[in-house]
Amino acid sequence: MKNVAxxxxxxxxxxxxxxxxxxKDMRLCGFIRRKEDAVEGFCNVPVASAAERLPVRPDGVxxxxxxxxxxxxxxxxxxxxxxxxxxxxxxxxxxxxxxELHEAALRGGAAAVTxxxxxxxxxxxxRALLAxxxxxxxxxxxxxxxxxxxxxxxxxxxxGVADAVSVTIPAGGNSHRRRVYAALIPKADPKAVEHxxxxxxxxxxxxxxxxxxxxLSPYKSHAHGVxxxxxxxALGEGGQRLAFEMSINNPAVTAQIMTAALRAGFAxxxxxxxxxxxxxxxxxxxxxxxxx
Amino acid sequence: MKNVAxxxxxxxxxxxxxxxxxxKDMRLCGFIRRKEDAVEGFCNVPVASAAERLPVRPDGVxxxxxxxxxxxxxxxxxxxxxxxxxxxxxxxxxxxxxxELHEAALRGGAAAVTxxxxxxxxxxxxRALLAxxxxxxxxxxxxxxxxxxxxxxxxxxxxGVADAVSVTIPAGGNSHRRRVYAALIPKADPKAVEHxxxxxxxxxxxxxxxxxxxxLSPYKSHAHGVxxxxxxxALGEGGQRLAFEMSINNPAVTAQIMTAALRAGFAxxxxxxxxxxxxxxxxxxxxxxxxx
Lengths: 292, 292
What we know:
The structure is a homodimer. In chain A, helix 2 (67-79) runs parallel beside helix 3 (94-108). Chain A has a 7-stranded parallel β-sheet, with helices on both faces. Chain A has helices spanning 11-21, 67-79, 94-108, 122-133, 149-156, 190-198, 250-266, 280-284, and strands at 2-7, 26-32, 47-48, 60-63, 83-86, 111-114, 136-143, 146-147, 161-170, 176-184, 207-212, 223-234, 237-249, 271-274. Chain A is globular, with a radius of gyration of 20 Å. In chain A, 31% of the residues lie in helices and 31% in strands. At the A-B interface, helix 1, helix 4, strand 13, helix 7 and helix 8 of A face helix 1, helix 4, strand 13, helix 7 and helix 8 of B.
């Protein structure tokens, strides 16, 4: 039985706590968040602003903070010898982050899994399998329409923004448009906020439209999805086509994947791993009879 | 550089030989088949009726014989210390076959990969990943319409059959109908052949129609496909849906997967492995940057 804490109590954090409560091999030993108030719906679960201040030391932490803060959080926890999992979605930075967390994990004698959400994460495993089965071909990943949690969190972190939702709109191939609904704090300058959004790394490569509104409630859906298509040829035969599609509750499935990835990490030696480095059998965690 | 031989020179064997020729890390050192004539299109490639009789000893063999003969072939090759891969599709027997090949592999000091086609094989890995991401749910696998190589080979092996093609027709959920087109040898009894087909393990659980004809050419397509759908709920949220779909040249993609699985086996310790026991990163074989 492993003691597991959840860092962050946003949408993903709440679902991660539920996933731990549903796990027979894990015990929810607390939330870690700045504000040390009880988390709604989890009034008996300890809350502390640091892992060391929880009444029971966690063996692992599910890191559910914005992607730009996961690296520092993981390094700190790994230095205490605590296993981590995060769903950091900074795709291009992941190879570097993974190397640095690997060093930190070896020093701390713990295991980290990074980029372990649905994309990167599950989708990365799928893309690797598609390329294995069809080495000659092109893979297209198309998200949405749906709310990107990573993009929304990036906007919420900008100065002048009270709340935000970023909608991902598929625009063909591997490209996407973004529509950001943002509520400003009093006296914030909309021009400055729009400029900051358009020049943020999450948005600068996409066509992005910013809409200011005080009521974000119509846009706060959890529905998201992806379609990954690989088409190519096999040994001279054209027209081969492999596709993966999913329609999900974004924070719920993210939390489910992270919890299972933390579990897989407990069985590994110290180091930092990416989800495609775990075998499907290992992640599935049962005798493979049912899937053969 | 590994010397690789192909056992069998049917549809899959021919494509497997092409896959080896396309592989920079493999050298095609021969075909192993009963009839020691040159294989059409590969007139300079040695042919022998046993691995020991090839001019160059293979490091690995891609076993492309009917599923009911792969186990004996693999055991023999493993006893010689030669790595193997097969795409045996006897789903229910695979756990037993795997255990027995594992013993043989340990004794011979070689690695085997069994059930490594597209189903079982790639699809097994996909089903395991879907169940990992969505632990509460039901997976439906629906094949075709298309020619089942396993079922066709099983009919061809029956007494009185000159040639056969078995078409898989999706019938909802995990169920399928079968339509068998069979050409008889002179004086064979159609009633006896039909009885043997309907009571063969490949057909006894499905609704099967047998049609006798002398001209099978209209039915000899290589197109096949599958749709795997998992639907369920995540942490109380219903309506989650994950799907995998593929439309392929059956023997070409099978050969591609087997060749890559043999490659992955070369990097493993002696033993017998199933495809879902290899990580997607390991099967992909390159730096994961491209799939993250």
